[in-house]
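Narrative progress, year one. The postdoctoral researcher (J.K.) led the effort to move from monomer predictions toward full complexes, under supervision of the PI. The following entry was the first complex the group processed end to end, covering 309 residues in total.
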Amino acid sequence: MRPLPLDCPSCGQLLAVKRLTCRACGTEVEGLYQLPTLASLGRADQEFAAQFLKASGSLKEMARLLGVSYPTVRNRLDEIIARLTEIEGQQEQQHD
Amino acid sequence: MTELTSGGEQSTSRPRLTEWLFSPFKYVAGVHALGIGLVAILVAGFLGFLSNSHFDGTLDFHTGAAFPLQVFLGEGLLDWLALALVLAVVGKAVSRTAFRAIDLFGTQALARWPTVFIAAAALLPGYQRVAVAIVQQFMHPGATPPYTATELAAFALVMLVTLAAMVWMVALMYRSYSLCCNVRGAKGAWTFVIGLVAAEAVSKLVILKIVMR
């Protein structure tokens, strides 16, 4: 499957989901759905978040798995936290 | 090795030589960096003892008086401690994230490893003769220089190595601070410069007090 586009190519705002399909029976649901905050992260950020959960939230273990130092992983996590905060802000704006 | 790039992508390439030279802290920090760094500081201090070369300030290198070995070893340790302590305080004040002191202290110790090259270069025969002669020429202008052209070339080479290693060391010190405290851009640069100047003053004063005793 192709990766999910997250930002509007025209204005850069977060995209919402309009249609969902059941791959088993083909049923389609149409509406206007907001993506969950974590799903609105970029692919690399999502992979990092998933690995972080699998490592039981241990930055030390993440550093060992990725072969980088602790502060490198810490800063990467800080970037994702900042991105999540930004996404939440955008989502709130879209609600208003 | 899985690698994190600046954009956050993970790739499986090996770190390049330039990364090991200028961004080693991406891969090494904490206790490991502290261990390697302390060994480098002590080796530089020992080599300095052999050539009477002092690292008598965070950013200082002078060839001069003979002292017991512990003075040479202590100077390097004080230089490291002064900057690490000052940057820890500055980092606490300006960083928006929690950081581990062991990472900053460890990487700051490792950032001093270029001093090994300076201390080793100062062992070059003739370097000390020229260093002493230049001071004497300043005190007694017009005196015939008591050194050969080869010795002068050795002196120039040591100066070049010193300059390059100092620039490299400051770059490493900044990268250590920037990474460990997660402070970047203009804020990272000016807070680092303030910390460096403060550490230079502190280390100079403490070393001077110890040597004067």
